[in-house]
Design brief:
Blueprint (H helix, E strand, L loop, with lengths): L5 H50 L16 H16 L7 H4 L4 H9 L1 H7 L9 H43 L12 H19 L2 E2 L2 E2 H8 L8 H12 L3
Antiparallel strand pairs: 1-2
Length: 241
């Protein structure tokens, strides 16, 4: 059986080490790509729901109501709204894995408890013209929120790609974890520049979102909150410079 040359072992180590350094940024890009896909699907679902919502005729309130409201007056709009919501917002591919809520629960979270009552199959809330206008506005706001968050995601994606490229250039200049003495000043300068650049970004904003809050939300399932800083810390901790 042939043995593996020492040089191959060295190359394997370098490859593994570089992957370890870049892993937080690569993971961040995977998270961001998933978030973008989900946001796009949710936005499309909400836009389709909005179209169907606008087609549902509201129920005019009687000028002098007498006794209990007739179920007939609300059953058709309620059924139409529930069907529209189920066919659009709840029909996105990731709904069960991410949300897994009942229709009424999701409406309450998305638009508020006042709207959730309207979607309850046993509701006695009339779908009045003012309520329809209000629900249309709430749906438009939900769409706008997805659009804004997706823009922030795209900005963060571009930023992660740039840092990945810059960091890759730095680590690929090394053929071991020992930084040559002649290169140490340049190495430290390049790493410090990236660190300062990212820290400056973290004190600014991503589209409409404060960057620290954005990172906390986006990377909440990771062991780290700041992928670039984590990658840079891994690099600094693993080299002899």
């Amino acid at each position: 059986m042939a043995t593996t040359p020492a040089q191959d072992g060295t190359q394997w180590f370098l490859h593994t080490w570089r992957d370890h350094i870049l892993e937080p940024i690569e993971t961040a890009l995977t998270v961001l790509d998933k978030e973008h896909t989900e946001l796009a699907a949710e936005q499309a679902g909400l836009e389709e729901f909005l179209q169907r919502l606008r087609a549902v005729d509201p129920v005019e309130q009687p000028s002098s109501p007498v006794g209990a409201r007739s179920r007939q007056s609300v059953s058709d709009p309620v059924e139409a709204l529930r069907d529209a919501y189920a066919d659009t917002v709840l029909a996105v591919d990731h709904y069960e894995s991410v949300y897994d809520e009942s229709l009424v629960e999701n409406v309450a979270i998305e638009f508020g408890p006042d709207y959730a009552a309207l979607f309850h199959p046993e509701t006695n809330v009339g779908f009045s013209p003012p309520l329809k206008r209000s629900l249309v506005a709430a749906t438009e706001q939900a769409i706008d929120e997805r659009t804004s968050l997706d823009r922030a995601v795209k900005i963060e994606q571009e930023s992660m790609r740039e840092y990945r490229s810059s960091l890759r250039e730095i680590i690929e200049t090394l053929d071991s974890t020992v930084v040559p003495e002649w290169y140490r000043e340049t190495f430290q300068s390049d790493v410090t520049a990236l660190l300062q650049q990212r820290q400056d970004q973290l004190h600014s904003s991503v589209h409409r979102f404060e960057t620290h809050e954005f990172c906390t939300y986006m990377y909440e399932e990771q062991l780290w909150t700041y992928p670039v800083l984590t990658s840079l810390a891994r690099l600094q901790e693993s080299v002899d410079s």
